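Troubleshooting entry. The earlier prediction with flavin-adenine dinucleotide gave an output that would not parse, so I re-checked the input for stray whitespace and re-submitted. Clean input:
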Amino acid sequence: MNSREKLSSEKIFFGLREVININEIVKGTFLVEISSSAQLSKSEPGQFVYIIPKTQKRTILPRPLCIADADADTVKLIFKVKGKGTLYLSGLSKGDKISVMGPLGKGFQAVKEPVLLAGGGLGAAPLYFLAKKLRNNEKTSLVLGFKNKDEAYFINEFKSVLRNVFVCTDDGSLGSRGNVTGKIGEIIRDEKIICACGPRPMLKSLSAFAGENKMRIFVSLEERMGCGMGACLGCVVKIRAGGKEEYQRVCKEGPVFDGLKVVF
Ligand SMILES: Cc1cc2nc3c(=O)[nH]c(=O)nc-3n(C[C@H](O)[C@H](O)[C@H](O)COP(=O)(O)OP(=O)(O)OC[C@H]3O[C@@H](n4cnc5c(N)ncnc54)[C@H](O)[C@@H]3O)c2cc1C
């Protein structure tokens, strides 16, 4: 079995996809829609794809991006330009072809209402996919945190699928002033689960909050990745398991982990 056949037997797509649409939704942050495939249409919230950028001179290491939405027609990805990989992506146009591998990793599983969703900055992207699955459920609340109003995105899209959406910003320029953990503390009712994605300090403080309040928490972690398929061990994080600490791979065992077990 060659590597491509092995990937497809594992229900992972590997090949070219067409850019259906690409838009800068806020300065430096882009929404790109690519054509889907049978495997990509079965993606779960929290899973990611690997995009293989081609610069003018050479192909560089793949870059992981969370799946912000997926169906039989399109896959949506939201990314912020940071370095050469995301710069390449930002230069794509409608009709271009890009190399994609996915869906990869383990997403948010066993999410039962009532649940609190917490997204910080770009971390809101995979939560949109999850929010759509929990669509219009009274028992689901979402807190979105951004640095300021200029960085906020997708708020109307979230409001179209969820009734209880709260926004906060560090400087109070949109929604209430403050951070995601503080807002979660204000709005919590009888929820017993938090699903969170965002910067590591936010995930750390939310996990401490969940522990103090005897809640479960699932956090989506980011680490720099090499192979994306579990072989290179480049993306390991420390996890408490069976009374000891061990390393687990963000690309394979994650990116979504039990936040109470992560050694932050
Ligand atoms: C599972 C997973 C899902 C992700 N989903 C998204 C997403 O939906 N949208 C999005 O914009 N980004 C996402 N990221 C981060 C994204 O992969 C990096 O921003 C991207 O690889 C940067 O590539 P680059 O070539 O543009 O920058 P580089 O030139 O490689 O790096 C530029 C800067 O970005 C930092 N950086 C690079 N990779 C990462 C990383 N994995 N995590 C944190 N910082 C990094 C570097 O330290 C450096 O400061 C995700 C990362 C992981 C692991």
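This one parsed fine. The pocket of flavin-adenine dinucleotide is lined by residues 48, 63-66, 78-80, 82-86, 122, 125, 222-225, 250, 255 (CB under 6 Å).
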